[in-house]
Amino acid sequence: MDNKRRSLWQLLLLLKDPRVKIDLSCDECYDLLMYDADLLASGVEIEALGKSIQRHLTTCAKCQQDLIKRGDEALERYIKNKDRG
To answer: Which residue in 15, 29, 13, 17 sits closest to 64, CA to CA?
Structure first.
């Protein structure tokens, strides 16, 4: 993967095509996670974002450890809402 960090809007455009598998960097995953958590808190359907985030988090031990260490409110909201639906 290219080391250049894509902006949130670039990632969201890529996510519009369900046939595209997006490999995220750790920073991109966290950006989407924060965005995802905010959308979930607002009641927006976010299936495409969730799949990309889950795929990254299941394969990236660094992100898993970093997010646990951060004790992030956004992560807690994300996990809580993902478990509901």
So the answer is: 29
